[in-house]
Amino acid sequence: MTGTYKRDDLTIDQHLALTTAARRLSEEFTGLFGAETIERFLHTGYDRFAGKAAVADFLPLLAERFARQRLYALARIEGRSDGRPIVLFLCVHNAGRSQMALGFFEHLAGGRAVAWSGGSEFASEINPTAIAVMAEVGIDISKGFPKPWTEEIVQAADVVVTMGCGDACPIFPGKRYEDWKVDDPMGKGPEWVRPIRDEIERRVRVLLADLGVPVSAPGPHR
What's the CA gap between 104 and 100, in Å, rounded? Predict the structure, then answer.
């Protein structure tokens, strides 16, 4: 049975939202993780997003989504997963390049592979121009959110793709890394971001082919 989050820094609504989130996660990961691990992941996620979220009401939701990803990663490390390949896209702010890569990967893989993203200095929101140019090709990344990475997320990935995070990118011996030299879209208009978007799509398609994952959509018609 999960706790009720007796913390002085939470409102009643936030207490209830986190308690409900803990219950959902406990049901999803029944037999894999206990209440203590689930609540710890929720608490640490909440704390990490607390200084970033534009709207405090969204904090429990962000904490739940991040905790779910971390629990899936931990299950993978412990040898309890569905066997799908996992790719982790990393950049500095997790607001532009890595979010577009994640959007393309999920769209093209059609659930046959898993993708995550993170940033060394994650931003408070996704780059609006990145959202706009991805919408032009029929992919909605507006519901995503910038997030950090954690040790278990990196360890669980089969491939780690880095885009500009430099020395801040986590390095684990034996892990497959790819460093994509792709321009940062921060502060650029749509006419500059579209070529970045198209280059990321090209690279994602090559990566999926290399992983043996058939794509669910044909090449771009634009």
Answer: 6
Domains and CATH numbers, the chain: 1-81 (1.10.8.1060), 83-222 (3.40.50.2300)
Residue with tokens 């507006």: 142
Q: What are phi and psi of 118, to 5 degrees?
A: -165, 170
Segment 188-218, tens digit of pLDDT = 999 999 999 999 999 999 999 999 999 976 6
Helix, strand or coil, per DSSP, at residue 15: helix
**Phi-psi region for residue 139, left (φ > 0), alpha (ψ -120 to 50) or beta?**
beta
Q: Residues with catalytic annotation?
A: 91, 165, 169
- DSSP SS3 for 114: strand
Phi, psi of 163 (to 5 degrees): -140, 80
Residue type, 158: D
pTM of the model: 0.90
Which amino acid, one-letter code, is at 140?
D
Please state, for a pLDDT cut of 90, what percent of the chain lies above it.
Answer: 77
Q: Tell me the C-alpha distance between 50 and 152, whole Å.
A: 21
Please give the distance of CA 32 from its chain centroid, rounded to a whole number. 22
Structure tokens at 187: 């502060």
Helix axes 128-136, 190-211, angle to 10 degrees: 70
Helix (H) or strand (E) holding 55: none
